[in-house]
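for the record, two folds in this file. i put them one after another cuz i was lazy. first one right below, seq on top, structure tokens after. the second one comes after a little note so u can tell where it starts
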Amino acid sequence: MLRKIAIGVILFSLIFIVVAYTAPASIPTPVPTVFQTANLAINPTEVNPGVEIIITAQVTNTADTEGTYGAGLMINDVTVETTEVTMTSGESRPLSFVGSMATPGTYEVTWAELVGEFLVPRLTGEFVVAGDEPLDLGGSQITAPDFTAVDVVTGETLSLGQFSGSTVLLNFVNLGCSSRLSEVVSAQLLAIKELRGQRHDFIPVSVFCGCCQPDVLREFAVQNDLTWPWILDTGNSIVHKYERYLKQYGYPTLIFIDKEQNIREVTGYIDISTLSVKIDEILQ
């Protein structure tokens, strides 16, 4: 009788040991989500105090699973803003931060392993001082820098020079990188459209920041029947040519160009009536 009980205890113990050993093997090993951050862009790289800049990087989920990317933007080694975005496997998209600095100085930007910088110059009267070289913004007969680019809506290649002989409203705008900026820019673009419906003696040319999504631009243009040239400045090469003006106003910046391709005036956001008055002044 005692012998049978002992055997029963041994068998139970063996079963318990096997179960305890095999259970962990059924738990799947978690697959880490890996994100790659590249192509840091600061636009513009020089702005007046209080003028907003757009800081953008291309983020890609290189893992086989969906994951959440946590981005932290550091300026001068201090985290100033964070965001989280869920991305599917293989998804790649530009992410942006928008902000401004009130104090003049050179600021270092750190995003993951990427590093860049931007300058906020000190203002002295009518001059913007960058280093030791004063830049007079009140000069006249400044020829608008030419550029060649592809219309993001039509796919046509165009240049600013081809509009010589016409009054051009060159507008630097942004859609989709910031909800607040998008609201202001949308209103500006729709004001330009309304004015175009009233008069046909000027040609708008819109240049969008490289952080904008092409599909977003095409959808907005088609939905609102905006038919003038739309350029996505992917490498911000056009922005760099006009950076001295963008640093005053950020987005939007409107540059009024006469028939001789000279820059006559530069403004930030303005309503339709002011737009019309300024075009009248150029045509006189």
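(here's the note) second protein begins now
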Amino acid sequence: MHLAQHVYQDWRVCVVMPARNEAAHILQATTSLPEWIDRIIVVDDGSTDETASLVKNAEIISTGGIGVGGAIAAGYQHLVKSEGEQRWCAVVMAGDGQMNPSDLPILLAQIINCEADFVKGDRGAHEDGLSAMPIRRRLGTWWLKHLTNMATGLSIHDPQCGYTVCNDRMLQTWDFSNNWNGYGYPNWWLLQCMEYDIKIKEAPVKAVYEGQSSGIKIFTFLPIVSGMLLKGLFSRGSRWYLLGQSKATFTQRATISIGFLGGSALLFSIPLIGPVGLCGIFGLGVARKVDATLLRQLETTQVDPRA
């Protein structure tokens, strides 16, 4: 089912809305969207409540409980297969109503102006900041922000924000056979974006916490996602700096390699050497600073960092 063709500045705007047991929020989430939204794809990921029956003015596809990352990927694939030749983009908005529809124009602007392929919301850049975010989430977001940026070489301020927009060409060339189905999908997508050379931007969005409950189990989520990012860190670090598959000078390669490897070794040795291992934070910090400086220099000259 295609909704009415409104077309926002010559683009079709489609919303992918993952939902699992969101009977308390899904009606508001689907009916509060602007009239110029062309399609709403609700991905019912194994709900056991009345979520599906409460959906209005939207298409519903089911994914059987594979996880929010897998549900979003299924929504993307549905759009790739069913959209036409006109330019279109896909907005991800959660079925629990945590994405404010009034932020849509600022998220869409950089896609429509062809300044980015993928735009992520940045809750910290909004005028309300992160005041509504629970302290535990803020701490987890801080940790994963730094780990994600080290793993990807990017400078993303809010990698955990799931409010995103991507353009049609990005999705049409994406390899959906390889996917992260769980809650760590925002970090995994950023890792993949570096491999695909996707142009990423951020835009301020409001942090909304109005009684919604999260399915994230923090003590299992953080180690799993941290492990995924550390794997990405060593993969990029090895290819770019140890093997020289980047535009870095020998001095930059040596500094970053010693900082990353030495710093990591010290941190992992804390159980054996005690507090001295915390010096590894300094090594990682130096490596990250040199890495970020190199990437900024290459970005200003529009040079691909990979050799």
